[in-house]
């Protein structure tokens, strides 16, 4: 399996993106729930065990979202069960479920 790495303008350059090459074309690789969970927690920059809207926006930017601010807003609406404005450890599974449904792929 060959991996090609590239960066996209406006996307965090520390995010690894790759494609699986076949004979005729490159197939996108979807992020697994475990990879998404790790990605989100990597953006808990203040290490408080909660993801703020700003941290979510940065994570969705890294995932390649063209509208990371909107995705962060929607993720909070969907996963923030107690309404405190943060995604806690107890709420992260709903966040991961949301991101999986969006179908982000390693680019």
TrEMBL record:
Entry-linked SUPFAM superfamilies: EF-hand
Record domain EF-hand: where: 31-66, 67-102
Coiled coil: none
CDD domains: EFh
PROSITE patterns: EF_HAND_1 (PS00018), EF_HAND_2 (PS50222)
UniProt keywords, alphabetically: Calcium
Database matches in InterPro entries: EF-hand-dom_pair, EF_Hand_1_Ca_BS, EF_hand_dom
Protein name: EF-hand domain-containing protein
Organism annotation: Acer saccharum
Lineage: Eukaryota, Viridiplantae, Streptophyta, Embryophyta, Tracheophyta
């Amino acid at each position: 399996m060959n991996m090609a790495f590239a960066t996209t303008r406006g996307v965090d350059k520390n995010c690894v993106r790759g494609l699986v090459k076949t004979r005729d074309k490159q197939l996108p690789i979807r992020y697994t729930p475990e990879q998404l969970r790790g990605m989100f927690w990597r953006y808990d920059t203040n290490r408080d065990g909660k993801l703020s809207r700003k941290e979510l926006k940065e994570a969705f930017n890294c995932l390649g979202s063209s509208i990371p601010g909107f995705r962060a807003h929607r993720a909070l609406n969907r996963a923030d069960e107690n309404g405190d404005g943060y995604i806690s450890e107890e709420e992260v599974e709903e966040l991961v479920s949301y991101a999986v449904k969006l179908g982000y792929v390693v680019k």
